[in-house]
Write a structure and sequence with these properties.
The protein has no helices and ten strands. By secondary structure, it is mostly beta strands. The strands form two sheets. The chain has a five-stranded mixed sheet, with no helix packed on it. Strands 2, 3, 5, 8 and 10 form a five-stranded mixed sheet that branches.
């Protein structure tokens, strides 16, 4: 599992095309919270499912596997909000998995929240 860096958008803006890294076959993790977005590019000929794990059980004891997002084949940038609900209290980070990592690149961008 790779720890994805967080790229903070300054008031002057941020170029993002040079921030993308290869998705890890074993999954990745990133910060979670207000203004945090995972940007996914899928260069594969088929759609890819990205899953953000829910680290906390529902109602105190019922596990929930996570939230899935379908990224279309050969898509441009696909933005997924990484809200606080995905933050693992043990690590402070969100766990990300991919149905396939080949031809998938990702970047994490956090915007200033007023």
């Amino acid at each position: 599992m790779a720890a994805l860096p967080t790229n903070v958008v300054p008031n002057t803006g941020l170029r993002i095309d040079n921030l993308f890294v290869n998705a890890s076959a074993g999954g990745d993790d990133c910060v979670a919270g207000p203004g945090v977005n995972l940007i996914v590019k899928n260069g594969a000929g088929t759609s890819v499912t990205v899953t953000l794990a829910y680290p906390q059980p529902y109602d105190g004891d019922q596990p929930v596997s996570g939230r899935t997002f379908t990224v279309p084949a050969t898509s441009g940038e696909f933005v997924i909000p990484v809200r606080d609900v995905y933050r693992n209290p043990a690590t402070g980070r969100a766990s990300i998995s991919y149905s396939a990592a080949a031809s998938v690149t990702v970047a994490v961008v956090r915007t200033q929240v007023a």
